[in-house]
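[audit] Reproducing an earlier prediction to check determinism. Same input, same settings, fresh worker. If the tokens differ from the archived copy the diff job will pick it up downstream; this log only records the rerun itself.
[audit] input (351 residues):
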Amino acid sequence: MSPFMYVALMDAQTLFLREVSRAFRPGPHQLIVFGLAVGVPLLLLIAYSAVRALRQRRIDRTESEARLERGITRMELPPHLQALMYRLAATVPDPRKRHHVIEYKSVFNRALAETRSLEPIPDETVSLLRLRLGFTTQGGAPLTSAGLPPGAEVLLVPTSNPHAVAAQVTTPDAGALRLRLHTDERDLRPATPLRVLYRTANGVFGFRTTILNREGKELAVAHSSRVQRSQRRHYFRKQARIPIQVGRRTHSAWRRTMTRDLGGGGLSFQNPFVSVEPGELLVVNLENLPGDNRPGLSPTALVVVLRISDNGTVLHAAFRRIDEALRDRIYQALFMGDSGQSTGAPHQATR
């Protein structure tokens, strides 16, 4: 092909493409039609999604209200407490999740704190709600006295008298904590303010309350939701007179003596030695502790003498080495009331 024919062909092709593009160039009306064809379905889809979301929110809100109503009905609460539960639920920001106040402990706790900032709510009421909802513990720690199980051992310490009295939880009751005294203590009368102490695997806890009623050895005390850790577990100590044996590490002979107080961190006892110095290591034998004696459990522990008091007649010692199972048995003995050996109020261990 000659160069002139090639150039003529290219010019013809360029002219053809220009005419084709001119013929398909959209005008204003065509752009409007195209925009409507694409935009209207998109807008309809967005509107449908929004309406569907609003409809689902209404469905979720209605379902949440129904679940909340069913849950409150199952709790069998009087009308004024039902109204309180609805006020608690109203503090949940999302209406679709207001039933969570009866299903999740954390939501209930937040709702309770917010409502209590606006209106007073008695401890007895809070304990009743926690008991009905099953929100009585958190992380193994008690949140209310209503969660104490039947058979649990407790210590009662009247405000006016440091003498601790042992008792046992009896029948569960949402209206009061019902206890049975191990001994007939005449000082525990209705309206007497006292402190209740009890132990769990997480430590020793207590709350302040008042005796509501008494019939013989049966007590009814007011529930409390203001439960606090009484002392760190290893430092809880109670006055107790329990026979023990003490020996020196270098001698095999045991000497019999009697404790003055005992706890998870140490003990005080009558000095059976002629000469002993602070800092000396001794071995104590606690096989006479009241309660169950597990087979294979070593009853001995190594203690260090911290100080000497009462003109050398009383030794105060801390455990240097003790089996945790033996420590648990010590707590079991401290909270037993039928042994007749634990006679005193809990106090802070001497360190």
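[audit] rerun output stored. Observation attached for the diff report: The helical segments are 3-23, 28-74, 79-90, 105-116, 123-133, 324-334.
[audit] end
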